[in-house]
# Entry
Amino acid sequence: MSQTLFVTGTDTDAGKTVVSCALLRGLSAARIAACGFKPVASGAEPSAQGLANADALALRAASAPGASLAEINPVLFAPAIAPHLAAQAAGQPIDPALLTRAHAELAGRYRVIVVEGAGGWLTPLGPRLLLGDWVAQQGWPVLLVVRIRLGCLNHALLTAEAIAARGVRLAGWVANLAPPSSAQAEGMIETLVAHLGPPLWRQQAQEAVPKAVISQLFGA
# Structure
């Protein structure tokens, strides 16, 4: 049976892609067939594979072979703006049923699916649908990526509350120590530990996730 983990962040540029790709590399090292999934992406540039989103390209490169870019990223909008606004401008409403079917197709072929969200937990997908609501409907556990910088404490704690309010299990959180570093980084992490527990790991570069974390998250 396939397992799915949803990766969200405290905001745009929190490090969701870096962490998602690190998970995929860790799963590969553990010989687990895993694929990244970016249900909705805004922001695309020309590539060798046509118009593509950079996050989706990174996920595909870190995934086990076999999935096309369109399967990994079924809904793509060219403007780098909020997905629901991009959908409105394009006259193409985001259909959550399409996203669910696209995930099911990948889940039938891979043991683990790592789903990377767009923006933060409550990113709107339409006039009445939030990304977190769709994830809650799927019943997936959530991994929260916190980029350790000014403002992260409030963002992280509010996101954790919103996840819990929807009855979703928080699988853990990651302390993303991407530069520029903060002199208060350790104090921020200690504060989050007091409220959320210790981070599953500290992400500092493009390395794979530690084997112990892969085992904890996926029972491998």
Notes: The first strand starts at residue 3 and ends at 9.
